[in-house]
Request: fold
Amino acid sequence: MSTTMPGQSARALSYLQRTFQIYERGSTWRTEILAGATTFLTMAYIVFVNPAILSEAGMPVAAVAAATCLSAAIGCILMGVLANYPIALAPGMGLNAYFTFTVVKGMGVPWQTALGCVFLSGCTFLLLTAAGIRQLIVNAIPKELFAAVAAGVGLFVAFVGLRDAGIIVPSTATVVAMGNIRAPQTALAILGLLSIAVLQAWRVRTAILLGIVGTTIAGFALGIVKWTPVHYRLSDLTATAFQLDIRAALHLGGSFGAGLLEVVFVFLFVDLFDNVGTLVAVTKKAGLVKPDGEIPRLNRILFADATATVAGSLAGTATVVSYIESAAGVAVGGRTGIASIVTGLLFLIALFVAPLVASIPVAATAPALILVGSLMISAVSEIEWADPMVAVPAFLTLITIPLTFSIANGLAFGITSFAVLRLLRGRATRQDWMLFVLAALFVLRFIYMAKSY
Reply:
């Protein structure tokens, strides 16, 4: 008995190692588990921020918190098992605000109907994936822009971290300005930033995770961080589970008119291009993109995030997207789906220990995002700056992602300018048809956005 069980365990581990190609990708079990935990810690805020935003739409906080954990767990585990990528998913920031403030409060659409719209966008995603259209869209993105997207997302992540840390603040005079670095939370974040940087300088692989945990402990010790537990029961999930109203979402001729079609399109459009940008940035940083720019198992990646969105709408939350915080896990060495599975399992555990997760302050995760951004910006060295055909679209992509606070907008500027330059320079070919279709859609999007302001 004692010799059989270890042998079975060894065979099981060997099978998993071969399935997930852990050693082939230059990783280890320890590194993958560490990467999954790091990614979870950097994005655990969504467990509490998402319910806070959706509660403004009249949705019960406890139920949305449970739905957030459940949908994130499903998305992460699917991504790990099906696609074998270290990319984590959860309900998306931005889209949850659109759900609440534009759709529900602005248009007067009941949250149940809005969930129906999320469900329809997820189903449309699945159909587009099955038809190969989403793959065509991803493959149509100029490979010359991949490095620009990765670097732009790095600036975006760093900008978010600096804002969350309070190091930069809004300013009516200069748009942004230096924050009060003597403020307790900001000072704690700076301490965390320095500690992670020092650990990285000493080549400590667990630098980011140790920095997050250490900063949290320091916050408690100094009295800066307060534990504010949030209690809810798993049974509270039923308050939003399967409450979506698909019939109302399909009834476009009703009191909301064609507005619901617009809602479905926005969920679809923003999710598509934010996911594409995240996918390109994370796979590029992880070294998982082929030399010709092809992303292996692309259809499985897209299937995982579409399925997660459908599951999220059924559970009772807004659109599920790929999280750029996955780059934090990649930065500590995550290269396989094991990292995503670990993140997913931790989201399941968060259902039971949500109060403990809530104790991790933003001041502890913000420094991690800043330094992940510093790692991702290295991709700028791969851009052919001497060639204006590449340099101009790359720069527009790089600069507009952080300054418009949108990966989708950065892709829009980059792809549109690349297509225009290619056309006017006389280098357009028949194989570029999808590129020009995307550029045309982005132009229409810009016109629509201009009318909305």
Notes: DSSP finds 20 helices and four strands in the chain. The CA atoms of residues 100 and 106 lie 8 Å apart.
